[in-house]
Amino acid sequence: MHDNSDLFITGEPIADTKAPDGPIETRWERRRFSAKLVNPANKRKMTVIVVGTGLAGGSAAATLGELGYRVKSYCYQDSPRRAHSIAAQGGINAAKNYRNDGDSVYRLFYDTVKGGDFRARESNVHRLAEVSVNIIDQAVAQGVPFAREYGGLLDTRSFGGTQVSRTFYARGQTGQQLLLGAYQALERQIAAGNVEMNARHEMLELIIVDGRARGIVVRDMVTGEITTEFADAVVLASGGYGNVFFLSTNAKGCNVTASWRAHRKGALFANPCYTQIHPTCIPVSGDHQSKLTLMSESLRNDGRVWVPKKAGDTRAPGDIPEDERDYYLERIYPAFGNLVPRDIASRAAKNVCDEGRGVGPGGLGVYLDFADAIRRLGRAAVEAKYGNLFEMYERITGENPYDVPMRIYPAVHYTMGGLWVDYDLQSTIPGLFVIGEANFSDHGANRLGASALMQGLADGYFVLPNTIGDYLAAGPFEKLDESHPDAAAARAQVEERVSKLLSINGDRTVDSFHRELGRIMWEYCGMERTDAGLRKAIELIRGLRDEFWQRVKVPGRGEELNQNLEKAGRVADFFELAELMCVDALHRTESCGGHFRAESQSADGEAERDDENFSYVAAWEFTGTGERPVLHREDLNFEYVHPTQRSYK
Amino acid sequence: MNLTLRIWRQQGPQDKGRMVSYQVTDVSPDMSFLEMLDVLNERLILEGEEPVAFDHDCREGICGACSMVINGTPHGPQKMTTTCQLHMRTFSDGDTIDIEPWRAKAFPVIKDLVVNRGAFDKIIQAGGYISAPTGSAPEAHATPVPKADADAAFEAAECIGCGACVAACPNGSAMLFTAAKITHLGLMPQGQPERDSRVLDMVAAHDEAGFGGCTNAGECTPACPKGIPLATIGRLNRDFLAASRKRSGETATAG
Ligand SMILES: Cc1cc2nc3c(=O)[nH]c(=O)nc-3n(C[C@H](O)[C@H](O)[C@H](O)COP(=O)(O)OP(=O)(O)OC[C@H]3O[C@@H](n4cnc5c(N)ncnc54)[C@H](O)[C@@H]3O)c2cc1C
Ligand code: SF4
Ligand code: FES
């Protein structure tokens, strides 16, 4: 066993008790049949709180409203339409097999389990592949303008190294179009009086009564008013936590607060260290940088990645002759070349930059060169394929990629970890369900391109609305109001925290702390992790967290729109999450998917998984800030897809 | 570079508000406009002043949150570009830049540059959707959509709901926003059954929310970061007329 017991305690194993066993193709059907139903007259008496209006939360709230439940929906933006899902570009997978190219539910299932590096549950992934086909039908019925062919049928493309063409898309705005579909369905339910929408409201605490999730404490971000809201069940659809790194491709407001508050109250947090780092983002241009922009991965189809052979070479790219360039991906991975998977491409870029061969400001970039493609295909053809991306690049960097090679660098993009849920998407707190990027469920240690949109909508439209009934069939539960001692206590916690943050009145801004935390995480818990580095990170995080609570300066008052107060609360929670991520990364001494431990690699630098010791989900229990968390293992069994090591050489 | 910013400061909805000048130094041309404001805000906080409140989220031109009138133009001088995508290399050393919130009756100011755009959601609630309850959808390929229609629908569907069109319009009209949705859904076969009620109800909600009428001033499209064409408004007008005729015809026969 791996003894890191100075950092955590090993607890009882846990198991998912909801997925039926037996043939995998019928598990979902059997679970739907065994789940209890709620009688329609009773639905109207039951309230469900849904936190988040992205693909997961928007689709869930609309569907629950249609089913007859009373829904209360929350988001921190000024409109549900602006949830971060809006930014997804590439597409959404579905096993429609419209191309007759050998795709099937089983193949999508297989690819996702394998792509996740054998760290996801087979039952969940199979269900995801099954409902993927319904998502496309649903979106088309809502009028989502997917790309079409001349015959009027839906177009697809292949994405992220799969050999079939199963990705549906709407130009580079697939997330936007799918989210608008869900948003419009949600607005329809708002108009019908089935959903009460609370935009610019932030959930700051979970209310648990008699062991059940029964409500939330929210702050009205315009007036600052703090209220308690009650329901028969609570659904978190609050997205991913990539912003713990400060710089990421996520929207600025993305945060872990809703999940973290639930975690502190007993919901286990699974695989927090699984982070996806995307290889093709626009590099940092200076200290002012506030976020990173993703450039579509499709660019690697025609662009060639290189750096100078010599360290510290400051010549302009055009002045570096061919034989002094290192096309390192083509050199190291001759079979896949520039098209190796995301994690491999990212790590290779980091390695060459660590050797001092990076290009651009701070040496943190590599070239993605289209000169060959322009020579081979002609400028017009390159423009037709990538014109909008080139334009976006030029807008941000001021450089024209037709003349000078693009500079790219990896950036944090997605978090596979999240709150632990069973097959019904219920957390370890009865009545608390978690959907979308906020849960840990379907992607294992690595998510395939175009699969997050699929999962969010699968959860929200098709899975949760079926499984939540099994829980609610025992309701409606006792009526509660703000005077209930557990509600009053949760509210007092929020009020105390808000006034604490406002009263410190120190000499450092929230952003300065967030940036510093992000640098620690990127350095030690980013693309490559080591025992020593992670231990150091934990120490640094603890020190910085203490400093935060003594020196942060939050201007303004609580009873008004106060964007720094909002940020401060989020950053405070990121500090605690950051420590747990490092502990998780430290305890998992294998490399798998997005988690690369330098100690666990082959002689030629490839990731080495350790199935004997780590074929499990690590679900962590909170015991107190800075206290050792308790590890609960959920063993993973592979009955259908047998674990193999990846190789891209 | 060094710049003078004149920014609209307004403590809350009741406050009258005023322009306040700030000097910013050492602005890098590689900064985005919002990053330049971040730097200003960091300084203001440490100096004990209130930072400037503004809406933003994705910072890549797609969520529609950012919303500033820069030197009199919604989203600033660069065409087809949201505030968050605007970079400081568009400006020159020594420039004075005026920064104000969207100004429109239907978008009351909440604080500084932050306004309430809830009226847009109200317009969508009135009919900006296709009724397709989850689970009721037919097989996606049951209804082919001609590529030209799908592409045109997509172009209208690109609207990010930012409100620049309203801020640019001398009447504070949201016709471009409304027309974009009417056009998107009206071009799809799935959108036909509700086409008439959609246009009538959305236009009624538009008027009720306090947006002004469209007088074809044509200021909206040039300000729109997604280039939603003016022709969409023509399409809305035709749909509206046709639907109104049908509705009054129905009432006539009924009466
Ligand atoms: C740039 C980019 C491109 C991407 N492209 C693709 C792609 O092509 N294909 C793909 O499959 N995936 C893609 N992804 C990933 C995918 O977009 C996300 O994983 C997915 O959209 C997450 O959806 P969600 O509903 O879980 O959460 P989100 O869309 O993040 O929604 C979170 C919601 O929770 C609310 N919220 C959060 N915290 C609180 C709180 N405390 N109180 C109240 N409300 C709260 C927010 O207001 C928001 O409404 C991309 C991601 C990025 C960053
Ligand atoms: S039409 Fe253009 S300007 Fe108006 S809300 Fe939509 S994107 Fe913004
Ligand atoms: S911040 Fe999202 S469009 Fe500008």
UniProtKB/TrEMBL annotation, chain A:
Residues annotated as domain FAD-dependent oxidoreductase 2 FAD-binding: 48-453
Reactions mediated catalytically: a quinone + succinate = fumarate + a quinol
Domain Fumarate reductase/succinate dehydrogenase flavoprotein-like C-terminal: residue ranges: 514-648
EC number assigned by the record: 1.3.5.1
Catalytic residue list: R342
UniProt xrefs under PANTHER family: SUCCINATE DEHYDROGENASE 2 FLAVOPROTEIN SUBUNIT, SUCCINATE DEHYDROGENASE FLAVOPROTEIN SUBUNIT
Protein name: succinate dehydrogenase
Origin organism lineage: Bacteria, Bacillati, Actinomycetota, Actinomycetes, Micromonosporales
TrEMBL record, chain B:
Database matches in InterPro entries: 2Fe-2S_ferredoxin-like_sf, 2Fe-2S_ferredoxin-type, 2Fe2S_fd_BS, 4Fe4S_Fe-S-bd, 4Fe4S_Fe_S_CS, Beta-grasp_dom_sf, Helical_ferredxn, SDH/FRD_Iron-Sulfur
Domain 4Fe-4S ferredoxin-type: 150-180
Alphabetically ordered keywords of this record: Iron, Iron-sulfur, Metal-binding
PROSITE patterns per UniProt: 2FE2S_FER_1, 2FE2S_FER_2, 4FE4S_FER_1, 4FE4S_FER_2
Superkingdom: Bacteria
A biological process term (GO) from this entry: respiratory electron transport chain
UniProt keyword Plastid, yes or no: no
Pfam families attached to this UniProt entry: Fer2_3 (PF13085), Fer4_8 (PF13183)
Boundaries of every 2Fe-2S ferredoxin-type domain copy: 1-103
GO terms assigned for molecular function: 2 iron, 2 sulfur cluster binding; electron transfer activity; metal ion binding
Cofactor field: [2Fe-2S] cluster; [3Fe-4S] cluster
PANTHER family according to UniProt: SUCCINATE DEHYDROGENASE, SUCCINATE DEHYDROGENASE IRON-SULFUR PROTEIN
Protein family: Belongs to the succinate dehydrogenase/fumarate reductase iron-sulfur protein family.
Protein name: Succinate dehydrogenase subunit B
Organism in which the protein naturally occurs: Micromonospora pattaloongensis
